[in-house]
Fold Oxidoreductase.
Amino acid sequence: MELKRISEALSVSGQITPADVAELKAQGFRSIVCNRPDGEGADQPTFEEIHEAADAAGLEARYLPVKSGLVQDDDAVAFGAALRELPGPVFAYCRTGTRSVTLWSLSQSKAMPMADILTAAKAAGYDMNGVARRIANGGKTPTDTGDAKYDIVIVGGGAGGIAVASSLHVRSPELDIAIIDPAEIHYYQPGWTMVGGGVFEAQDTAKTMGSLIPRGVHWIKAAVAAFEPENDAVILDGCRVVKYDRLVVCPGLKLDWGAVEGLEETLGRNGVTSNYRYDLAPYTWELVQRMNKGRAIFTQPPMPIKCAGAPQKAMYLSGDAWYRRGVLKDIDIQFNNAGGVLFGVKDYVPALMDYIEKYHATLNFFHNLVAIDGSAKTATFKVAKPDAEPSTVTMDFDMIHVCPPQTAPDFIRVSPLADAAGWVDVDQTTLRHKTYDNIWSLGDVMNAPNAKTAAAARKQAPTVAENIVADIAGGSAVAQYDGYGSCPLTVERGKIVLAEFGYGGALKPSFPKFFIDGTKPSRAAWILKEKMLPPIYWWAMLKGKEWMAKPERLSVAAK
């Protein structure tokens, strides 16, 4: 008997024998539910035998038999009633446990988000994506067959989603394309660092989603609940189903604020801020302006995160502001990084270290933020240095800029599209899914080993568009992505270290060295960031104009 815990109230396993009941009693179970019909297997004990053993052990038992592969809606209702009525925790079994987990999944559909249900089942070794439509439909079998259908469906209306829609629309205006995204507002997130540094106004980084969706592209304003790649279908909240010939997946990352104990309760007050949220970036600048002395902590969680340079950008612009005001000598800057290096591409580190020294910042590597007490103004870090026992350290702060832990969205992590780590599993060159050949992915949610930046999406979108058009024409992939990413490191107001690199940390400069030497701080790079990149984003990238982003032809070796 191999017990698998589904929730605090329920564990399951495959077939048990009367002899197993005593062990269930010893482990604290108070009830048993049988979901396997008698006579299904030659060596299978009857429910009456299990019931007698349960009575002898002082456990309650209930018989809710379900034929294999035929879980009915009423069965799920009965199972939910059993969980409410029987003393818990409850143990349920069938031949393998799958029917029991299916019944639980359907019975919990109105009480739990689908992603949580699929996650719990997956953690126990059961894939419930096959009943995702029924879970989305409140545990009932859908009867609506009038599903929407498009040539191309794009999940996510962020930088990658709108850019690839525009690139596709420009190439093939006749394509019937739909973007699925529930958001009303689209944000230029690379601008939030500048908002936190007092350079941009927050409102200048936001536009309505409707104003950016390309003309002729449908906008489905809804959240995705699950994927059915075997049926070429995306399931929306409320059990609406959208069918596709080809699918592009680019919903962005989930900022997991709740992973840091106490963080959500104190964000935006008590000196706790983050440039990773539109409404908090102005608070960062407010804190910087108010601060004349004390300790300022800047945190960076374990990778991957979007724009890995953003946590230190906040530190540099803050340090520069304090330097210019003449108060830097009274401010203790601490950069607490869960990783072991300042920046992942070594060529840019010397220039950054000059500014670490200028701002007298202390670098604390292998320090991962795990808890914040806003009212006490303390932050607790788990310290996990190589070849040393893990420990914790608590630091006082007057201001703390937090970069939250980040993961793929729940509906991605539990989907058939994800790899073992929860990211969409693509070929890193063509960005096509490794298993489903009519699915592509770009942006922060896929598993290619590149930096997760808007600049990366700017290069990826034309690559995906070119390869989809080639696929529609019956050909193989024609464009390749080389891992390009860019991180304009704002080391002071008026100067930037323009990091541009591809797979393996190979430098990928866009400009001649005499104009911008990316390994050194420059005024030209600042002008690019402040004056040129925002309009390029709004009026080129999101409009299908691929300035300096033309897709690279796929090499013979890559094929």
About this structure: Residues 4-136 form a domain with the Protein-Tyrosine Phosphatase; Chain A fold (CATH 3.90.190.10). Residues 369 and 434 are 35 Å apart (CA to CA). The chain has a mean pLDDT of 94.
